[in-house]
Amino acid sequence: MAGIRDAGFVHCTPVQAKCLVHTLKRCDVTVQSQTGTGKTAAFLITIFQLILDGKLPAGKKAMVIAPTRELAVQIEKDAQLLGKHLNISMATFFGGVSYGSQEESLSNDVQLMIGTPGRLLDLGQKRKFNFRDVQILVIDEADRLFDMGFLPDIRRMLRQMPPFNKRITMLYSATLSMRVKALAWDHMNNPVEIRIEPEKVTVDAVTQILYHVGKYEKISLLLGVLAKDKPESAVIFTNTKHAAITVAKRLSLNGYQCSYLIGDMPQAKRLKTVEDAKNGKIHFLVATDVASRGLHIEDLSMVINYDLPEDIENYVHRIGRTARVGKKGKAISLVSPDFVHSLAAIEKYIHMEIPVEWADDDMFVKDETAGMHIRSGLKPRPVHKRSGDSRPRNPKRPPTRQEMRPGRPETSAKPRMSAPRKPHQHEAKLNRNGSPEERCAYYRAKYGENFRPPGDK
């Protein structure tokens, strides 16, 4: 209760009220809940209370599986806040950093493990801990884990854990898809299904505005939005890493204190960027969807979709960075022709039409970087050219229409033009330094006695 007071919680959110009734009785639950509804506190309070009640035997562990490093770190910080007055050891486990400190925490018999699937499996394979010791399991953001390809890893871990009737399992997801339900059917003990409707998260708490804009006017309009609303802090989402870097650089050159967050950043730099954003050292952060979940900035004023997301669920996750736990926020989307195709699906998903405002000339602020070529510094993806005309067709591949023309061979391969042969080292030496008689003798030995030098009749 002291930790709950420190966190500033007074009343349960809907997801907390519905979950705690069942989880404190050691019942399995599958929960559909959007980001920002307080579900992290729901499962952390359950874990702490079960440990205090002696439901976690000595040497056994509680484990929280999260899809991203940022989310794992955020869960640990919430756990440290809520469990500040408890003698419960906890640690995070994720890739991109050395194993040393993480293995040391396991040797000290950590009780609460929070981590990403890859690193947890690595540590298990190295026998640093035994999955059989996991008595309380939380799978957070299950749909995101599946989208990132972690479903085989999750099943692999579950098979190494105690049977479903010998542990407590809580599964949280933004959508209870068929894959999520199949996992619950196979690996959970008659879970109670809890659904929190998402409409109030996106409609009531967040003021949404949409601007239609040309592709090459987006920076100018973005500067106009920032100048008009003057947000104290904002997260600006792009669909690609290249766009995130270039937008951040253009904002910086226009006088805004700005940084970027992408998936390819070194782990230490990513953590420092997130920490600086939370502490107010960075007021404007440009990010890809790697930050749409697990990034919790207190009192975030605004979310801007510089690119409208192609994944419709990511729209909800993005704008969920603001208006968290009942607070108000603002979400602005700049819709250009290259990403407008997802607008109708997003509006259908959130059951509303996003209000449209039309930008007048005053909204377009002069971009000081106009005409400048801003390099992202990212290495271009290697392009593997398929030279189908220069290699025989794979017999397992169906023939192309060109190959099926009557009167033509199975493959239309053209003979390669061989490069001019370079003279051998000894041949080149003779050509340069040998006498005519020596050169003639060399070529007769090579080409036959009927060799005659040019001009010799």
Written account of the structure:
The structure is a single chain. The chain is α/β, with parallel strands linked by helices and 457 residues long. It has three domains: 2-196, Rossmann fold (3-Layer(aba) Sandwich), CATH 3.40.50; 200-363, P-loop containing nucleotide triphosphate hydrolases (Rossmann fold); 423-457, no CATH class. It has helices at 2-6, 14-23, 39-52, 69-82, 100-107, 117-125, 142-147, 151-160, 178-187, 199-203, 218-229, 241-253, 267-278, 312-319, 343-349, 425-433, 436-447; strands at residues 29-32, 61-65, 90-93, 112-115, 134-139, 168-173, 192-195, 206-212, 234-237, 258-261, 284-287, 302-305, 329-335. Strands 3-4-2-5-6-1-7 form a seven-stranded parallel beta sheet, sandwiched between helices. It has a six-stranded parallel beta sheet with strand order 8-13-12-9-11-10, sandwiched between helices. The longest helix is centred in the N-terminal third of the chain and has 14 residues, at 39-52.
